[in-house]
Every structure is written in structure tokens, then in C-alpha cells.
């Protein structure tokens, strides 16, 4: 199920075959006192904002996945990272975004293309989605500084260790640098 039924494809630039998966870009992760809050999440939000802005400017296909049901105002998108009407939002009940059949169907179109993943819950939903994406035949790149680990930083290190041989890891700054090289 998606929040938007539009199939509008944004303008395509040199990165026409790039996709961005935005996991759990919700207030739950940035409001002090909430169970999933971590002090470093404000830096993750800034990195996510850089990646989302770049992806939108370059016409990537952007899809959002959020846990459903979300808890009131804390389930709302983080200000500045709200999905555009052209960006589908897929709600899930399980850990992996691929638990939503519509999300899985949408991402089948990304086989053979570059797929980047950003968001929160690295130790659970991001790792589950990344592993399911690999099973679906996707080539995944995780943007390290645009992934929130949550309160358990050891879990983030373990998740990166598990995923490192299976996916590429880049920083948002190196992604921007690559983009500038291609555009110049």
C-alpha cells in the first residue's frame, strides 16, 4: 500500500538509473526521550537531507518505507525529509521494507541499477531491507553517515560488519564528490 498512487517519474539526468530507499525518516528518531532517539541522529538527518536533495535534483527514483502503524506525531516524517507527492511511501509491519509486496514489486524495477539506502534503524530495519534486497538481486550501496544506528552503537558496528562484504559503503560527501566529477 502506498500513500501516493502517482506513477510520475522525475526528470532524468546522468543518474537516471539510480534509486534511493529512505528508511524510517520519522520524528521517532530525533525527539529526545523517545525510545529510538540517539544523540548523533541530528548529524544523520543532515546527511540524509544532503543525499535526498542531491537525488531529487538529479532525478533519482526515491521510495520511502515506514513502520506501520506509527505512533502519532512521532511517526510523522522529519521536517525537511518529507516525501514529495511523486515519491511513494510504503508502510510495513515487519522489519524489511520488502515485507510490503508493493515495495518489493516496485524495487524489482531497480534490478541492474544502482540502489542507495539511507535512514534509521541500521541494526534492524536497514539491515533486514539490505539483506532482502540482495536476495532480490539488487546492487545496494549504504550511505554510512546517513544511517542512524539508534541507542545501541555496538549493533551498528555489527550490522556494518555483516553487510560490508555484501554491499558497498560510501559517505554522503564522497557521493556528492562523485556526482560533481560526473557533472563536470
Explain what you see:
This protein has one domain: 3-Layer(aba) Sandwich (Rossmann fold). The protein is globular. The model is unreliable at 4-15 (pLDDT under 50). By secondary structure, the protein is an alpha/beta fold. Helix 1 runs parallel beside helix 5 and helix 3 packs parallel to helix 4. The protein is built from five helices and six strands. It has a six-stranded parallel sheet with strand order 3-2-1-4-5-6. 40% of the residues are buried. Strand 4 (114-119), helix 3 (122-135) and strand 5 form a beta-alpha-beta unit.
Overall average pLDDT: 84
* CATH topology annotation: Rossmann fold
Estimated helix fraction:
25-40%
CA-based gyration radius: 15 Å
Strand order of the largest sheet: 3-2-1-4-5-6
Count of separate DSSP helical elements: 5
CATH level-1 class: Alpha Beta
CATH architecture: 3-Layer(aba) Sandwich
Structural class by secondary-structure content = alpha/beta
Quaternary structure state of the chains depicted: single chain
The separation of the N and C termini measures 40 Å
CATH superfamily: Isochorismatase-like
Q: Write down the overall geometry.
A: globular
Amino acid at each position: 500500500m502506498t500513500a501516493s498512487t502517482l506513477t510520475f517519474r522525475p526528470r532524468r539526468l546522468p543518474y537516471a538509473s539510480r534509486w534511493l530507499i529512505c528508511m524510517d525518516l520519522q520524528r521517532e528518531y530525533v525527539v529526545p526521550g523517545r525510545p529510538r532517539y540517539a544523540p548523533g541522529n541530528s548529524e544523520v538527518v543532515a546527511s540524509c537531507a544532503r543525499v535526498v536533495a542531491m537525488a531529487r535534483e538529479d532525478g533519482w527514483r526515491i521510495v520511502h518505507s515506514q513502520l506501520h502503524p506509527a505512533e502519532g506525531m512521532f511517526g510523522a516524517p522529519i521536517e525537511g525529509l518529507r516525501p514529495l507527492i511523486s515519491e511513494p511511501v510504503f508502510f510495513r509491519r515487519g522489519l524489511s521494507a520488502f515485507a510490503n509486496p508493493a515495495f518489493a514489486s516496485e524495487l524489482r524495477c531497480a534490478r541492474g541499477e544502482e540502489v542507495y539506502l539511507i535512514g534509521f534503524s541500521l541494526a534492524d530495519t536497514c539491515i533486514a531491507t539490505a539483506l532482502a534486497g540482495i536476495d532480490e538481486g539488487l546492487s545496494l550501496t549504504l550511505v554510512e553517515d546517513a544511517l542512524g544506528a539508534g541507542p545501541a552503537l555496538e549493533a551498528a558496528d555489527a550490522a556494518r560488519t555483516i553487510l560490508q562484504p555484501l554491499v558497498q559503503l560510501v559517505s554522503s560527501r564522497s557521493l556528492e564528490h562523485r556526482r560533481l566529477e560526473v557533472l563536470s
